[in-house]
Amino acid sequence: MSNWERFIDTFFNAQVMARYLPDILYGTLITIQLAALVIASGLVAGLALALLRSLGLRPVNLLIVFTVDLFRALPPLVIIVFIYFGLPTAGISPSSFVSTWLSLTLVLMAFSEEIFWAGIISIPKGQWEAARSTGLSYGQALLNVVLPQALRLTIPPLTNRTIAITKGTALGSVVALSEILGMASSAVSNSYNPSPLTLGAAAYVILFFPMVVLGRWLETRMRWKR
Amino acid sequence: MLETFFNWDIIKAAWPILLAGLGNTVLLSLVVVPLGLFGGLILSVLAGVRNPWVRWPLMAWVDFFRAFPPLVLLIFLYAGSPFVGVQLSGFLCVCIAFFLNTGAYYGEILRAGIESVPSGQIDAARSTGLGRLQTMGYVVLPQAVRNVLPDLLSNTLEVIKLTSLGSVVAMPELLFQARQAQSVTYNPTPIVLAALVYFVMLWPLVRLLSRLENRAVARA
What we know:
Helix content of chain B: over 70%
Strand content of chain B: under 5%
Mean pLDDT of chain B: 91
Number of strands of chain A: 0
CATH architecture of chain A: Orthogonal Bundle
Order of helices and strands of chain B: HHHHHHHHHH
Number of domains of chain B: 1
CATH topology of chain A: MetI-like fold
Strand content of chain A: under 5%
Number of strands of chain B: 0
Radius of gyration of chain A: 22 Å
Number of helices of chain A: 9
Mean pLDDT of chain A: 91
CATH topology of chain B: MetI-like fold
Oligomer: heterodimer
Helix content of chain A: over 70%
């Protein structure tokens, strides 16, 4: 066997790949579910915090800023490890899925709150005043005038940040979540061949490459006009 | 509650272990941040090449490593290397993975910075007799870096946080040490302590970034 053939046989072994394809597909399904949940809950929580912050209640705002700072400063893996290995000592035992979901949601919440907030404060005061003077209530002005403009500005940075955090679903493998990486790793130790890892890598690229390209497109499409 | 999550005896016992971990986290950051910056610098300078045979593969390279979770890259190197006959150390795997992953991110940021420098600057520098490399080094890059400094800092924060992945390949950094201490004591205090150390270390950077970002929005 030549070196090249041996390399192919090691990393692209068709037999091994065929045997573990169902496992990887199952893992992909878990990754997609987890990613979708994280994106939905993280963005909703982030937007809710940004809206709450726009009310201008000082003690509440200090608490929001501290929470956001906390989850921007902590590595996601540290949060996952704390929730999964730490909380059970206090009698709460979240599953690996819940631990990963909760951690990434908190992180995405923190980052998206910052981005939404930056979008809201970037809208000139005149917009608020004009909206209120036509008789719109505070809520109506926010919802119908300010947010539509603010959200447009936030889409490119939000997309990139969301992709970066969603990739963190792979961290779930550290707490034995059977997502793509977890499934691939156990398949490698069962088959003593790294081909499942190649398959898992391909699954990640298929899932996330289009998102990265979309992010790049949005960035050029919605660039701030100066 | 305090007894469980912030046990004073355990703090005293675990502190030296965590301190060693903190030292390694700092050392690791001092290695991988320049490594990523170096990778990004190469990519961003190459991005200025007009030739489509350079441009498109380069863009694909950057997007590929931005799409690829760094942990997957790390595991691939660490678990895959024995099958080609070498066991790369955890440290080496972290270095390679970070060079590829964070290099792609830094590259994108620096590219945006270089593109933000008006072409008149390059023409003027070239007409004074500076070479291509001199123009890049003395005229374009200093302005480019200043224009994207908030993004560079923000990415550096992410890179430092990402060094916690080293724990997965048995690098004795902060998180790894905390988990060791936790499994010996059967108590989550070391992890809480490690989180506290991360927070105290990185909070100033987060605050600074938040201010820089708000100022950038106010200017636009």
